[in-house]
Amino acid sequence: GGERETRWSEDWAWMYLLVCSGILLIGMPFYWFSFVQGMDFETARKAFVRVRDLRYLELIGNIEERKRRGETNNDVFLADINAYQGKFADAAALYEKSGQAEKAVEMYTDLRMFDKAKEIVKRSGKKNAHTLTQVQRQEAEWFRNTNDPKAACDMYLAVGEYSKAINIMGRQNWTDQLVQLIRQLTPEHVKELKLAATVICEQEDQWQYAIEAYRKINDLDSQIKLFIEMGQWESVFAIGDDHPEKKEAVYVPYANWLAEHGRFEEAQRAFHSAGRDDDALKVLMDLTENAVSESRFSDAAYYYHILSQQHFDSAVATTDNDEEKEEYMNKYRSRRRYAELYYVFSVVYDYLIEPFTKQSSESLFSMCRYLLLESEALPKGISAAMIFIALAKQSRLVGAYKLARFCYEKLQGMIVPRRYRKVLDRESMTIRTKGMNDQEDLLPMCFRCSTRIPLLHNNGHCCTHCLQPLVYDFANFELLPLVEFFIDESISDEEAMKLITAEPPRKHNEEKTTEVEDGVDRLRVSNAPITTDIDLFTEKLLAFEASGSDFVPIVADRETLQSLNYREVVVKRWDAPLRYQFFKAVVPAHNTALCHQCMQFFQAEEYSLRVLEKGQCPFCRNPIDTNRAIVASCW
């Protein structure tokens, strides 16, 4: 029987016929595999076609194709056959025997038998095209795909795949391991350290470790950017001080941040430090336009005030071009006017839009009149219709019926928001039941000529009789008892200040009296000071005579200045090229406050309340020390 089986094993064709005839039914798969191992691929193909085993048919086709390409190593073919049969150890031994250990490594890595693959790599040494690192990398990939991040991370670190390990640490929020890796990496690992810094910044309150990574590779730009994001401006400035070439990268973002937070003066200085004055103006203009378009008129007023200050500073800095200086001054005056108008309109607008207001009817009435008397065109966003609506309402409340009638007539020719139309139609009818005149006590009085000024006139913010400019309280917009006067052209501002503060000279009147004492006639001479109830400034006020349509200012000479009580004089100390403005308090008991930042007047008590409420000037928002006296004077 043994000799017969041996002969059968040598004659594969005969064995195939015996199996197919049914003589050898037991162990049929064994014979099929024997055909393959005996390298009789023709017979083996017929056998596997008979049993429809596509897997082995594919193997046979692959081996035959390789033979046609000139491959002749039967050990490799046998190794492939053993691998297909699950005899992996035999297959690996044959691969190594044939000098193709890399195939054994590839087989074990495909089977996820990484330890055996590593053993073959170590045993084969340089003869193997696979390296231990490659095997470990594949093992790490497998761990990652099988959701074992710890093992995958450790394997990536072992093979030097730091970027993949960092990504895993970031996804798992392994801060401690990430910090440890940052400290282990050398400055040569620039890419990995940048990635680690980026990943650790995504974790809460861990940005200081990112700075540590950036410092290791001396990445100043990334340090500056991260410090800015964290609001660590002192650290940003420290980099700028140590590295002057980074000045622009330091101060431009700082200036933008300051502008966004409303600290425009500091923003301008920061832009100037970076040499970017044009950017400072552009940012401020954008903020101003946005405030107007969004109906944030109070902010628009503040931005225009800052813009006016910037134009004024530019005019001061311009010393060699008179035309350019005058252009800056014109822009300054225009922007300052816009600031004042938006400041007033913001209160009127809030009154119409908001359900409640803390302003009194008298204050709203005065504010609307201030806007109505504006002689030039109103800037963008200020609605004349809304001004007339508010003024009509307040005129009815305070008893200015003539002015209310005028407002309702004007509104007939304007486009009025729909929500006001029915109310205005009704009020325009009911106003006819009221009187035809304005109440006498509503008419403001000029403190120079004592003339009552009509509520409606064409002289703007000046007296209709003497044309003296009126001085407003920028809290309630009532007239203040201040009269502006000018100094003689031969007197400088500094000399005028000295004359006002100097002790006024006194004239004496010599008196001679004769007395009898102890029977002796005695002559006594006394020099009594001359007293009078009218000073020189008051004389100039009383000596006023109207001269047609021309304004005749009050001009004070040295004698007049020296006669003034300095406690009754308020001075706006403008910087050059503007001259000082001098005002005399006609009612000395009236306390007036002056903000020395924006040069606006306020009634002292109202100003105190506003400052106590917000700690800043109502107009320019300049911080005010509430512990200091705020009653204005020139000293």
Overall description:
- The protein has helices spanning 2-10, 12-21, 28-37, 41-51, 54-68, 74-84, 88-97, 101-110, 114-124, 132-145, 149-159, 162-172, 175-184, 190-201, 207-216, 220-230, 233-242, 247-260, 264-273, 277-293, 297-317, 322-353, 361-372, 384-398, 401-411, 418-430, 493-501, 536-542, 558-563, 604-614, and strands at residues 482-487, 508-517, 520-529, 555-556, 569-572, 581-585, 592-594, 601-603.
- The chain is of the alpha+beta class and 635 residues long.
- The strands form 3 sheets. A 4-stranded mixed β-sheet has the order 4-1-6-5. Strands 2-3 form a two-stranded antiparallel ribbon.
- A hairpin with a 2-residue loop joins strand 2 and strand 3 (520-529).
- The longest helix has 32 residues, at 322-353.
- The chain is elongated.
- Residues 1-9, 21-28 and 627-635 have low confidence and may be disordered.
- The helix-and-strand class reads alpha+beta
Overall number of strands: 8
Approximately how much helix is present in the residues?
Answer: 55-70%
Please give the count of helices.
Answer: 30
Largest β-sheet summary:
4 strands, mixed
Estimate the strand proportion: 5-15%
- Main-sheet strand order equals 4-1-6-5
**Terminal CA distance:** 134 Å
Mean pLDDT: 75
Based on Cα principal axes, name the global outline.
Answer: elongated
Question: Helices and strands in order, then pairings?
Answer:
Layout (H helix, E strand, L loop, with lengths): L1 H9 L1 H10 L6 H10 L3 H11 L2 H15 L5 H11 L3 H10 L3 H10 L3 H11 L7 H14 L3 H11 L2 H11 L2 H10 L5 H12 L5 H10 L3 H11 L2 H10 L4 H14 L3 H10 L3 H17 L3 H21 L4 H32 L7 H12 L11 H15 L2 H11 L6 H13 L51 E6 L5 H9 L6 E10 L2 E10 L6 H7 L12 E2 L1 H6 L5 E4 L8 E5 L6 E3 L6 E3 H11 L21
Parallel strand pairs: 1-4
Antiparallel strand pairs: 1-6, 2-3, 5-6, 7-8
